């Protein structure tokens, strides 16, 4: 009886605390919404001169020749698919242009657990392969990407207010309060980024953001089963709510004319520093460093991650 009353009190207090501290107070939206409020810009990083982790030079594509609807008769994109992809790791498709007897892929649909639907709508299939909906990139084939067409990722933007030791919120030069987000330094190119990652076959994006945050920002892969269990409990609370801030194409340097990155980004916000304070950041998996970083328009981040942060700063009326 005493135990029951105590548990009920705890439960009510917990509900009260959550309601009042505004810890990630927005409900998670796992709905299929198309790019809320944001339209992808003309891709730039997807036309970078040298393709990542290679010496391959892209065919130069000027801004005005990016759209497929613009005539560009001289266009001769380099054909490149990395050897590591041709060796068919679990996440990679067959090379459908050469392996003619491989079973056909269900583009714009689902192949069992593999989601080949784009957040951008129906993409075209030209000469048997998908065509990048954002236009030319100067390179055909799949480069470093495993899937033909969309390669799905998910990104957790975990934020808190920047405070001094007394708990006072600090303002930026524009007079608005400064937000901080958990940022990781990627092992592949040493750039700072949101700790996101690829959606596994059959996985829902809300599970991906949580798994990737655990692996890259908390080093969960190196934990003992007991530590993992404890972490899972804490993550249950941290990731139970959140707000979707972007869904769509990403201007990623790995994109090609036939394979590209798409993501769903969520913001998990800790209004009074009470949730994430308990958790110790520790870089793991594809991340070599992790830290709370001040949000600002002058950051140089991986792919189009800066655009997601701009949206987050706007939503919280934070310094930018
Ligand atoms: C990264 C994500 C990123 C996506 C698209 C993935 O490899 O882990 O953070 O949004 O690529 O660039």
Global outline: globular
Number of helices: 5
**What does the oligomeric state look like here?**
single chain
Q: What is the radius of gyration?
A: 22 Å
Mean pLDDT: 86
- Which parts are unreliable, with pLDDT below 50 for 5 consecutive residues or more? 1-37
- Helix proportion of residues, in percent? 10-25%
Give the total of beta strands.
13
- By secondary-structure content and strand pairing, the structural class works out as alpha+beta
- In percent terms, what proportion of residues is strand? 15-25%
* Largest sheet properties: 7 strands, mixed
Termini separation: 53 Å
Spell out the helices and strands N to C.
HEHEEEEEEEEEHHEEEH
| Unique bound compounds | beta-D-glucopyranose
Pfam families: NUDIX, NUDT9_N
GO molecular function: ADP-ribose diphosphatase activity
Organism: Crassostrea virginica
Protein name: ADP-ribose pyrophosphatase, mitochondrial-like isoform X1
Give a structural overview.
One of its GO terms (molecular function) is ADP-ribose diphosphatase activity. Residues 160-315 form the Nudix hydrolase domain. This is ADP-ribose pyrophosphatase, mitochondrial-like isoform X1. InterPro entries: NUDIX_hydrolase-like_dom_sf, NUDIX_hydrolase_dom, NUDT9. Pfam families: NUDIX, NUDT9_N. Helix content is 20%, strand content 22%. The protein has 320 residues and is of the alpha+beta class. Strands 7, 8, 9, 10, 11, 12 and 13 form a seven-stranded mixed sheet that branches. A two-stranded parallel sheet has the order 1-6. It starts with a helix and ends with a helix. Residues 153, 155, 193-194, 196-198, 250, 252, 261, 263, 303 line the site of beta-D-glucopyranose (BGC).
């Amino acid at each position: 009886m005493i135990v029951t009353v105590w548990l009920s009190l705890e439960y009510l207090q917990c509900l009260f605390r959550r309601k009042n501290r505004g810890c990630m107070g927005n409900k998670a939206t796992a709905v299929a919404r198309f790019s809320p409020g944001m339209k992808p810009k003309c891709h730039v990083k997807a036309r970078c001169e040298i393709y990542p982790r290679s010496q391959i030079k892209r065919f130069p594509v000027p801004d005005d020749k990016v759209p497929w609807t613009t005539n560009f008769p001289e266009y001769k994109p380099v054909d490149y698919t990395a050897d590591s992809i041709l060796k068919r790791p679990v996440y990679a498709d067959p090379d459908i242009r050469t392996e003619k007897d491989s079973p056909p892929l269900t583009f714009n649909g689902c192949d069992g657990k593999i989601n080949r639907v784009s957040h951008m709508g129906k993409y075209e299939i030209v000469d048997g392969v998908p065509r990048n909906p954002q236009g030319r990139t100067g390179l055909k084939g799949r480069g470093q990407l495993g899937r033909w067409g969309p390669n799905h990722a998910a990104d957790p933007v975990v934020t808190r207010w920047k405070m001094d030791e007394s708990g006072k919120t600090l303002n930026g030069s524009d007079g608005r309060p400064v937000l901080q987000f958990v940022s990781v330094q990627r092992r592949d190119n040493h750039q700072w980024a949101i700790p996101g990652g690829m959606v596994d076959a059959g996985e829902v994006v809300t599970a991906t953001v949580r798994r990737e945050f655990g692996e890259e920002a908390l080093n969960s892969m190196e934990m003992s089963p007991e530590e993992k269990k404890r972490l899972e409990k804490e993550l249950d609370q941290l990731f139970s709510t959140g707000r979707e801030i972007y869904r769509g194409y990403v201007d990623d340097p790995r994109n090609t004319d036939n394979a590209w990155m798409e993501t769903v980004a969520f913001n998990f916000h800790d209004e009074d520093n009470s949730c994430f304070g308990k958790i110790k950041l520790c870089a793991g998996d594809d991340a070599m460093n992790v830290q709370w970083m001040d949000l600002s328009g002058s950051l140089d981040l991986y792919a189009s991650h800066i655009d997601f942060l701009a949206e987050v700063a706007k939503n919280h009326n934070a310094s930018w």
